[in-house]
Design goal:
- Chain C: This is ABC transporter domain-containing protein.
- Chain C: It comes from Paramesorhizobium deserti.
- The complex is a heterotrimer of chains A (about 300), B (about 280) and C (about 350).
- Chain A is mainly α and about 300 residues long.
- Chain A has 13 helices and two strands.
- Chain A has a domain of about 190 residues: MetI-like fold (Orthogonal Bundle).
- Chain A has a two-stranded antiparallel ribbon.
- In chain A, a hairpin with a 6-residue loop joins strand 1 and strand 2.
- The N terminus and C terminus of chain A are likely disordered.
- Chain B has a single domain, classed as MetI-like fold, CATH 1.10.3720.10.
- The two termini of chain B are about 25 Å apart.
- The mean pLDDT of chain B is about 85.
- Classes of the chains: A mainly alpha (about 300), B mainly alpha (about 280), C alpha+beta (about 350).
- At the B-C interface, helix 9 and helix 10 of B face strand 6 and helix 2 of C.
């Protein structure tokens, strides 16, 4: 398009309306909500993270970075960090690998692809907390059908008392819920791969498995990376409901993730300053994750 | 397709069916449980086929009120969740489309500053600033109100970005043609921009409806009264392992009722939803 | 019925880029004025300033005796046809044409009358219920024209309206636009980068380059007497042969020393470039038969392009490459040495600054 003279020398503004006041009015609602519910609380979190308050709110004291030092030296916090990492990695792996496998299979079938998609996207609509409850119902030691079956096979199964088993249960529920989302993206990613490339590879004598690892998988890398970040963010933050509903962080803090600990310290134990410091640390993690996401996968946006 | 051998296709179908089974089983089994009596549920293993208490359980849960949550009926909870999800979805779309419109189709001082102010909120999920946000709620007296349940979740950089991205693909000539045709900003918005955004709005509605419906931490904090709770929160309150009198049959019914509306929305609006979700994130 | 006058119109973008430099132009009522030039020459900016889509840095734009500088596009009583048509994709053909009239709160029966009349003129009557995406490129083009016509404006503006059509359709639409403009008698400004389109459509041709107006005039006048080197090379295909002259000689000697033959041929001392159109060169056979050319040049043939009705001979004179257009087929072979001649009246002389002498 050679629309406007001198286009190459300076950015020509796109077609616009000349109004001067109207745009501010249009922005006002969003800016108001953003200021009241994002910037003000975030700055409060920052401020509070440098205060120490007794649980009754009777006295407050400025302590600088002491809360951060305290939090980062707290073995409970570091344990919670470790739990979160394990939980996030396991959830990402178990949510992405089966989704990729299913997507590859869905790409092969000609008939019924739409039906499979319809049947596989349900969990997207299920709240994480409910996903947790569905799994808990199956695996709960007293009335869970599968728990009963496991016990009859001689496996001592009690996720309410056994830490690793509790972790397995919440990972299963978290991954189960996220498979749909990953599946949709992998299917779209696979459809975006030019068929001619795959055909060329098969003419070159690459077998099915080889084609997958040498052609399809590398071309899916952007999608996979994007999903990895999304799944990590999901495991870090959106799974609060699962933990809260299924294990309550237990048994014995075995499933206490960072977000759960912020909630627990702030709302249950009322250690406000340290809870705020934890919030700030979480913010830094989110910002880092988002930055990574935008750096490598430009223009991709996390819906949430 | 390169490999048309039937064996490959049979393998693919088998894998997909196993996938569907794993995905669907927890939901199916919950449905089965919701049709059995409490006694049957308490004596596992539970049969794989639905029982005969469907009507009885559903009627009790919907209209009878449930003891553990102060006798509030599931109908009230469903209503609350619907209101919350719809308000969040509509509110987000409304404020986002306006701000995206301002950022793309006008030039004014501080335009990019405002854009970045909105953009950065992408990085601040509610979970990381819960305490101070909760305080704001208390100060405004918004605890146990629909406003408190929805307002903080409405500001969304994602929706704004989506609309902005879409608006940027609208050719400048279309704006110019509209101006020559005598359309001002409002007419252009109403007659041209909104109709062209229909698909995006539909997709965003589904995504944000689900987002609103599945909220957990926030409703947990800002509601104390049982009759203001969302169905997801109420469900959590209905379960107790320490307590033997958990009415599991009603829990199961509530579970099914809690996941049915969002599943219906996703399945019925699948076409827009998948397009909106996948295409706009590319 | 309106005249359109541009008085000292100038456009400077933020960052001090001067996109349009002092343009003076008077278009009489009913005339079709074509702005032509390479991309980035300022022609589209000028058009958009007339439309009211770009602000005017300096000068005045006057439509029908009224200064319109401060009026919005909708208040100027103009209609515009865009390069990409800019049809509203979600509206039917009918609604596309009616939209501007509805915004002006015109009575429904009158809107209906006008839309149907324009549709009949443009042979769109059977397509009124369709959406733009269900139309072919040519049909979309017509709808864009229809949208302009129904408004019955004082001035039509065309922004490269044919550039998205294939060559055949473009030729066809060119004729249609010309006929339509004639029969409606609406003053029009038409922007294009295609010199053929410009030549065939224009009543008044404005050649622009780098924000400047190089020349204004009737198409043939410009073709025959290009005011500058730029105009000489931009108008005409294949372009005019331009030979660099040895400076300060006053004699027909090229930069590399090649002398142009001819008795009594002399140029002013400022002459820097000699231009000859390909069709003004002819082959000079060995023995002179009557008419002697005023100027001759010996060249070596490099390539022949026969295109049917005519042939182009490409040859080198010293370091200069020339094109000669001859009727029908030619017997000349590549590698042959030939002598070409021209009449003094067909020579165009330009000075150092590129201005015609």
């Amino acid at each position: 398009m050679t629309k406007v003279g001198g286009q190459k020398d300076h950015p020509v503004p796109r077609a616009i309306f000349p109004n001067k006041v109207l745009p501010y009015l249009l922005l006002a609602p969003q800016l108001a909500i953003t200021a009241i519910f994002f910037y003000w609380p975030a700055s409060q979190a920052l401020y509070q993270s440098m205060l120490r308050e007794d649980p009754f709110g009777l006295s407050t004291q400025f302590v600088g970075l002491a809360n951060f030092r305290h939090v980062l030296a707290d073995p409970n916090y570091l344990h919670s960090f470790q739990v979160t990492i394990i939980f996030a990695v396991a959830t990402a792996v178990f949510a992405m690998v089966p989704a990729l496998y299913l997507a590859v299979m869905a790409d092969k079938v000609v008939r019924g692809r739409g039906i499979y998609r319809t049947l596989l996207i349900w969990p997207y609509a299920v709240a994480p907390a409910i996903a947790g409850m569905l799994w808990l119902f199956l695996f709960n030691p007293s009335i869970g059908t599968i728990a009963v079956m496991l016990r009859s096979l001689g496996i001592s199964w009690d996720p309410l008392l056994n830490g690793p088993q509790a972790m397995i249960l919440v990972v299963a529920a978290a991954a189960w819920k996220q498979i749909s989302y990953n599946f949709l993206f992998f299917v779209a990613g696979l459809q975006a791969i030019p068929k001619s490339l795959v055909e060329a590879a098969s003419i070159d004598g690459a077998g099915e498995t080889k084609r997958f690892w040498t052609i399809i998988f590398p071309l899916l890398a952007p999608t996979s990376f994007f999903l990895l970040v999304i799944n990590t963010v999901y495991a870090f933050f959106d799974t609060f409901g699962i933990i809260h509903a299924v294990t309550g962080g237990g048994p014995g803090k075995a499933t206490e993730t960072l977000v759960y600990k912020v909630y627990n310290d702030g709302f249950v134990n009322l250690i406000l300053g340290e809870s705020a410091a934890q919030s700030v640390i979480l913010m830094v993690i989110v910002i880092a994750l988002t930055a990574v996401q935008f750096r490598y996968v430009e223009r991709r946006v996390h819906y949430g | 397709m390169i490999d048309n051998r039937p064996s490959r296709r049979i393998i693919a179908h088998t894998v997909l069916l196993i996938g569907v089974f794993i995905i669907a089983f927890p939901i199916y089994y919950t449905f089965v449980a919701s049709t059995h009596s409490l006694q049957t549920i308490l004596r596992p293993p539970l049969p794989l086929i639905p029982g005969g208490h469907f009507l009885e359980n559903y009627t009790t849960a919907l209209f009878g009120g449930i003891g553990r949550i102060g006798g509030v009926g599931v109908d009230r909870l469903l209503w609350n969740s619907t209101i919350v999800a719809v308000l969040i979805a509509v509110g987000k779309i409304f404020i986002s489309i306006l701000s995206a419109y301002a950022v793309v189709f006008f030039r004014f001082p501080l335009r990019m500053t405002f854009f970045w102010l909105i953009f950065i909120t992408l990085m601040l999920p509610v979970e990381v600033r819960i305490l101070p946000t909760y305080k704001v709620m208390v100060d405004f007296g918004l605890i146990d109100t629909y406003a408190g349940l929805t307002l903080p979740l409405m500001a969304s950089a994602t929706a704004t970005l989506l609309f902005r991205q879409f608006f940027m693909t609208i050719p400048g000539e279309l704006v110019e043609a509209a101006r020559v045709d005598g359309a001002g900003p409002w007419r252009f918005f109403k007659d041209i921009l909104l109709p062209l955004s229909k698909t995006n709005i539909a997709a965003l509605f589904v995504i944000q409806f689900i987002y609103g419906w599945t909220q957990y931490l926030w409703p947990l904090l800002v509601t104390n009264r049982n009759d203001m709770g969302t169905i997801v929160i109420a469900l959590r309150k209905m379960i107790s392992f320490a307590d033997a009198d958990t009415e599991w049959h009603l829990v199961m019914v509530t579970c099914i009722l809690a996941i049915l509306p969002p599943i219906l929305v996703v399945v019925l609006m699948q076409r827009w939803f998948v397009r909106g979700l996948v295409e706009t994130e590319k | 019925m309106a005249t359109l006058d541009l008085k000292n119109v100038r456009k400077v973008y933020a960052g001090a880029v001067e996109a349009v430099k002092k343009v003076d132009l008077a278009i009489p009522d009913g005339a079709l004025c074509v702005l032509v030039g390479p991309s980035g020459c300022g022609k589209s900016t000028l058009l958009r300033m007339i439309a009211g889509l770009e602000s005017i840095t300096e000068g005045e734009i006057v439509i029908d005796g009224r200064v319109v500088n401060d009026l919005g596009p909708a208040e100027r009583d103009i209609a515009m046809v865009f390069q990409n048509y800019a049809l509203y994709p979600h509206m039917s053909v009918y609604d596309n044409m009616a939209y501007g009239l509805r915004n002006r709160r015109m009575a429904k029966p009158e809107i209906d009358r006008r839309v149907r009349e324009a549709a009949a003129t443009l042979e769109l009557a059977h397509l009124l219920a369709r959406r733009p995406r269900e139309l072919s490129g040519g049909q979309r083009q017509r709808v864009a024209m229809g949208r302009a016509i129904v408004r019955n404006p004082k001035v039509f503006l065309f922004d490269e309206p044919l550039s998205n059509l294939d060559a055949k359709l473009r030729g066809q639409m060119r004729v249609e636009i010309k006929n339509l403009q004639r029969s409606l008698g609406v003053t029009s400004v038409y922007v294009t980068h295609d010199q053929l389109e410009a030549m065939t459509l224009a009543d008044i041709l404005v050649v622009m380059n780098g924000g400047n107006v190089e020349q204004i005039g009737a198409p043939l006048e410009i073709y025959e007497k290009p005011a500058s080197l730029f105009v000489a090379s931009f108008i005409g295909a294949p372009p005019m042969n331009l030979l660099a002259l040895k400076p300060g000689e006053g004699r027909p000697v090229l930069v590399d020393g090649t002398t142009i033959g001819g008795e009594g041929l002399s140029f002013s001392k400022e002459a820097a470039t000699l231009g000859i159109r390909p069709e003004n060169l002819f082959l000079v056979t060995g023995d002179s038969n009557g008419s002697r050319p005023d100027a001759t040049l010996d060249i070596v043939v490099q390539a022949i392009e026969p295109v049917g009705a005519e042939s182009f001979i490409y040859g080198d004179a010293g370091k200069e490459r020339l094109v000669i257009r001859v009727a029908g087929k030619t017997v000349v072979e590549p590698g042959a040495k030939i002598r070409v001649g021209a009449n003094a009246a067909d020579l165009h002389i330009f000075d150092e600054a590129g201005k015609r002498i």
